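Issue 218. Parser rejects a valid record. Input:
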Amino acid sequence: MAAHDPGDIPGNDDDHGDRPRTDVDDHIGIDLDTGAPDIAVSRRVVIRRRTATAMRAAAALIGVGAIVFLWLDDHYGWLDYRPGGTAFFTYVRPIAYVLVIMGGLLAIKWEIVGAVVGAFAATAIGAFAVNQLIGVHAALVIALLAVPALLWLVADALDWSRHQVVAGVTTVAVAAAIGAGAGEYVYESFYGPTHPESETEALEPSLVRWVWSGGVTSDRARVQTRLEDDDARARLFVTETGRWDDATIVEPDERDGPLVGFTATGLRADTDHHYAVEVDGDLDLVRTGRFHTFPTGPASFTFTVGACARVGSNGAVFDAIRAEDPLFHLIAGDFHYGDIPDNERERYDEVLDLTLRQPAQAALYRSTPIAYIWDDHDYGVNDATASSASRLAALSAYRANVPSYDLAGDESPIYQRFDVGRVRFLLTDARSGRVPGETMLGGEQLAWFLDELVRAADEQAFVIWLNPVPWVAEASQDADDWGGFADERRAIADTIAANDIDQLLMVSGDAHMVAIDDGSNTDYAADGGAAFPLLHAAALDRPGSTKGGPYSHGELAGSGQYGVVHVVDDGATITVELRAKRYDGEVLLSYEFEVGSAG
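Output the parser choked on:
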């Protein structure tokens, strides 16, 4: 190949010797046949270089924009979430910050490494976004994480050989696949089903979205329903025979948009009743329900208790509870894990609507009346107290959606009471009156409860206290259980001891376990004399964990678990049988005791 005089190269002759150098000069292409400069090749090199620079700048800009957007969303709430999707903001968004910053810093020196981190972040965070955010917003979050990764990959690939491009693309694709798998695995581990799904079939759509009953006594019952139409006219039909032509018609006594409440009165005690909702003159026979009015005097009955179910749960445990054919079902807190942080009433309506439309839960609540006290996750966020920003919305939503017993004022905790035969049930709210370091129940509720304990012991033969949070726990100032309120716990125990209340059973939830204590560890009175049996019944559909203790009959962490209480009252002695069971029918723990000489 002939040599070329540098003077033959454009820009090196005497006429152009003073011309400023350009990117083309730094990337001169050489024609391999002639050895002459190839300006076309040179320009392609320059274009690639400029394109790569622009892509790096765009990736950096979008990465910074993603961080700024997520930070501003924390303040202004631009991203909208599905019911129960607040975990994205609490736990996932901070991880997104870390991964975006890490990817950006690594990409300064190694674009391909930044691309790998970005691809992993987009798919791992995306698994949570898809499940917890509404569709458009989930796509936006994924794009904010994925686009910088794609730009870093392309910027690096512009300088690679074909084999290097294939290797780089493959590496990034593998990182994305690993991220998707890891994200979905973690999501399912924390928020997915924990035991087999129910095989109960969903009902066909009708004029009624859901219906359930509660507040049952010997002569009355509450029914709450949500209609498809906000303005539809509704009436309740109640019958003992199951024939609707001889039903009693009940007009609504509460109305809140599509939410309608009824109180059926003058009912016969210890009797099956069927009900259906008429909407604009058409009786909805798709979603009908039933309840059994409570007996009076000495009576035997069975009730179930359970707590802690994930949002949208449709687990087989609800079929197992329904198969027990209980007189009623106690919901002992964490009915759902909505974790609603703000004073937005519609958020509570949304998650309750989703919960009550799950086939297995809907079938249970249509056939079995309920009594329901919340805990932290269905009242507010984790460990929520009276200072919760969503407190008023929670109280309003509870009253509009839940068929409860008589409640105090609109802003009071949701404590309530009812009787079955000679048994008094007291239900206390451990969240909406709580002031950390001061009181678990709040002054109003505590005064009510202490008075009711004494009255119940005088008026009835046996008392069952639904207390949603762990009672047996070491004293610790910051504890979320009764150990954090040791003085108030002692005051309650001293009241029990001073009034010789020895006919008491506590049922609880919160801890994702079943546990039974025979009274060996429940006595916190200053001078003793306040021991009583205890049953923990959870988790319905959440990963297992244990709290508090010790418990005389042990504790078992797990899911798909619930409690069954059989009360046998022959008029002289009340025998109580406690069973902790699993969705497949296995009895995990059991204990039986008698309340002697119940007069």
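Fixed in the parser; the record now loads. The longest strand covers residues 282-292.
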